[in-house]
Design goal:
Layout (H helix, E strand, L loop, with lengths): L4 E5 L2 H12 L7 E5 L6 H11 L14 E4 L5 E5 L12 H5 L4 E5 L12 E8 L5 E8 L1 H10 L2
Parallel strand pairs: 2-5, 2-6, 4-5
Antiparallel strand pairs: 1-7, 3-4, 6-7
Helix pairs in contact: 1-2
Bound molecules: adenosine-5'-diphosphate and magnesium ion.
Length: 152
């Protein structure tokens, strides 16, 4: 049984720093799923992850498109599936989720049915203005190992 880990951050920079550290351990095909309300810090986390993958372009929430692709040490696919809530639409997620890069999905709970069993799920909770609690659920041995390497 996998055990959840808790990481608390006290600034957006700290959240990005953690995501950056995670990024250095990722491989092609890895999927990170983010849950949490609006303003929780999902995009902030994604920006940090991108930096850790060596992406130099600015990462913003994909507002009009569901997915944006960035070039880094590995390709990064940044998905924000907020607009797919309550739709059964399959926009060809498989291409990203089992692809040659790292995939990070904001509002992942909306596409639960399309997500791979092996993934790192992170639930970000607002605590106060600058404090966030990240509940980290490694699904599968690969992500368990990554959590151990991160010492979380
Ligand atoms: P989401 O993508 O979940 O809607 P964003 O990352 O766009 O959230 O917004 C999070 C907001 O909260 C940003 O304005 C960010 O600066 C702020 N913030 C404050 N403290 C933190 C923290 N510890 N971690 C992440 N974001 C934080
Ligand atoms: Mg966002």
């Amino acid at each position: 049984m996998s055990q959840k880990r808790i990481v608390t951050t006290h600034s957006p920079e700290e959240t990005q720093q953690f995501a950056k550290r995670l990024a250095t351990l990722l491989q092609a095909g890895d999927v990170i799923t983010l849950e949490g309300d609006l303003g929780a810090g999902k995009t902030t986390f994604s920006k940090g992850l991108a930096k850790g993958l060596g992406v130099t372009r600015t990462v913003n929430s994909p507002t009009f498109t569901i997915v944006k692709e960035y070039e880094g040490r590995l390709p990064l696919y940044h998905l924000d599936v907020y607009r797919l809530e309550d739709s059964e639409e399959d926009i060809g997620f498989d291409e990203y989720l089992h692809g040659d890069g790292v995939t990070i999905v904001e509002w992942a709970q909306f596409i639960e049915a399309f997500l791979p069993d092996e993934r790192l799920n992170i639930d970000i909770r607002y605590e106060d203005n600058t404090k966030r609690c990240m509940e980290i659920h490694p699904k599968g041995e690969h992500f368990e190992r990554i959590c151990e390497e991160l010492k979380i």
